[in-house]
Design brief:
12 helices, 66% helix, 337 residues, globular, mainly alpha
């Protein structure tokens, strides 16, 4: 993992020097927009997929098995292509820490939260992760631009508007608390990952993060008695199809498209998924799940999405110069629910 500091660490866990990031597209524009559309739609739809999957499949089992299977499939593809999966002990430990924080306590808790709250609300709360990372940067002594700081304050106010309508209902309030805890773990994992000795190959890092994060969730499922909840009604067709979608599209196709984009497109373009994904999740939840966000929730969503947009523009201003080299800027495993 590169050790250079970069303003963009609010958006990625594995960070490389900003001066080495290509600011111009280096692949056919049509291909870039197709890949970006995949990231927009696939990652925006994961919240919808999770909601359907956990209707009958216990949440920690759904998440843990999803990441274990996706990790094994990715490892098989890498081995077939001749990529070495060998890592050092330090890299293995670092991958375990990242996997537990990002995928175990992060995405795993999203599955739990969505048994109690709407998928659209979960997506909006998850959309505040970049803003939460900016808060950690401030605590760590960094000095983001003024526009970044103000947008963060506005986005966190939006988060308050999103959660306020559900604070009076016990089950919903618990779901909101779990979802916020998930984003805090996700935020901490993203912030710390660039300080860990992760494997230099982002796909190899993803294999171990998904494998170890998935194993953590499977152990947690056993500790909470989820295996005892398995029965003939657990594997309803809709839930199984949603789980397959999460494995194949969310954890493989979406990740591959994102990792490819990081190498060929301006980072200011790639990170636009941070504010597009919640819009896709809201639309899918309303169209197919009958979700009807309250006016307060929609107002909060507008503040969150607008704040992320402004922060992205502040963190990644458009330039016309092209640096001499292109650097890889992240692993895909921690970018989505």
């Amino acid at each position: 993992m590169g050790k250079t500091e970069c303003a963009g660490d609010a958006w990625r866990s594995h960070t490389y020097g900003a001066a080495r990031v290509s600011l111009l597209v280096t692949a056919p524009v049509r291909h870039v927009w197709i890949a970006l559309l995949v990231v927009y739609v696939v990652w925006g739809s994961t919240y919808f997929g999770i909601k359907v999957a956990v209707e009958t499949i216990p949440p920690l089992l759904a998440a843990g098995s999803r990441f274990l299977v996706a990790g094994l499939l990715l490892a098989a593809v890498l081995a077939w292509r001749g990529r070495s999966l060998r890592v050092t002990r330090a890299e293995l430990v670092a991958s375990g820490v990242a996997g537990v924080l990002l995928l175990g306590l992060g995405v795993g808790l999203v599955h739990v939260a969505e048994t109690r709250i709407d998928s659209s609300v979960a997506a909006i709360i998850a959309g505040t992760v970049p803003l939460q990372i900016i808060v950690l940067r401030l605590v760590a002594g960094e000095s983001p631009a003024r526009a970044t700081r103000l947008s963060t304050l506005a986005g966190l106010l939006g988060l308050l508007l999103v959660v306020a309508p559900g604070l009076g209902a016990g089950s919903t309030a618990l779901g909101l608390a779990i979802m916020i805890s998930a984003t805090m773990s996700w935020t901490l994992g993203s912030f710390l990952s660039k300080r860990l000795s992760l494997p230099s190959d982002p796909f190899v890092a993803s294999v171990y993060e998904m494998g170890l994060g998935g194993a953590f969730l499977m152990v947690g499922a056993g500790a909470l008695g989820e295996y005892g909840d398995l029965g003939s009604s657990t594997f309803a067709l809709d839930s199984v199809l949603a789980w397959i979608y999460l494995v194949v599209m969310g954890s493989l196709v979406g990740f591959t498209a994102y990792a490819w984009l990081l190498g060929v497109a301006p980072i200011s373009l790639v990170v636009t998924h941070q504010y597009v994904n919640p819009l896709v999740a809201i639309a899918l939840g309303m169209a197919f799940l009958g979700e009807r966000p309250s006016p307060w929730t929609l107002a909060g969503a507008g503040l969150v999405i607008g704040a992320v947009y402004v922060a992205i523009k502040s963190e990644f201003p458009r330039k016309t110069s092209r640096p001499g080299s292109v650097a890889r800027r992240g692993t895909p495993a921690d970018q989505t629910a």
